[in-house]
Design brief:
198 residues, mainly alpha
Length: 198
């Protein structure tokens, strides 16, 4: 249980870090940063509560399952909120780039980043929702699926790490790289200005 909780912290910290990197340089949006940060603290608190319930021998199976469900709901909320913020920020950047350059083909790099972040979130959220549905209908499959769901949440950040290794992730230089690759290399690529006759 401790390995699962620590790996979940690391996965959520990676997502939180990406969200902070995106929002810290945007004007009038820095007040968004405390939202995922506070959700991350709630995830840590509920996971500690889950660990305490899991280590107590006297605790019943129902009590531990209830603590696990609370943890999953909070974790789903964190992933959805953080991914939504990242996606919204990417769409804002994409719209600004297309408006400033005037070409609808620019901004494809942003779609790769959105897809990478969404894929990671979907893996974690779908497996968690399946577990919650199994728990709600009191199906015995929920107990073996709990182990599968744990593994799915650990696999989810590796999708994002793979995207980072492939160079699709957002870094401090991404703005400059996108602008440098999007703009023409020579001045002849720009539309010519009409000549004014004297």
């Amino acid at each position: 249980m401790a390995c699962y909780i620590i790996s979940n912290w690391l996965a959520n910290a990676l997502t939180l870090g990406r969200c902070i990197i995106l929002f810290r340089n945007m004007i009038n949006t820095k007040w968004f940063i405390p939202i995922p940060c506070s959700m991350f603290l709630v995830v840590i608190a509920t996971s500690i509560d889950l660990f305490v319930h899991a280590t107590k021998v006297s605790e019943s199976k129902e009590t531990m399952t209830k603590a696990y469900c609370i943890f999953i709901v909070v974790d789903i909320s964190f992933n959805i909120i953080t991914t939504s913020l990242i996606t919204a920020c990417m769409m804002i950047h994409c719209a600004k780039l297309r408006k400033s350059i005037g070409n609808r083909d620019h901004g494809r790099e942003y779609i790769n980043i959105i897809a990478m972040t969404t894929e990671s979130c979907i893996i974690s959220v779908i497996s968690s929702i399946i577990y919650l549905v199994l728990h709600a209908v009191d199906n015995f499959v929920q107990y073996p699926f709990m182990a599968i769901q744990n593994q799915m949440q650990v696999i989810a950040p590796f999708v994002m790490i793979l995207g980072i290794i492939q160079g699709k992730a957002w870094t401090r230089r991404t703005d400059l790289d996108i602008i440098n690759h999007s703009l023409p290399d020579d001045i002849e690529g720009f539309p010519s200005l009409p000549r004014v006759s004297s």
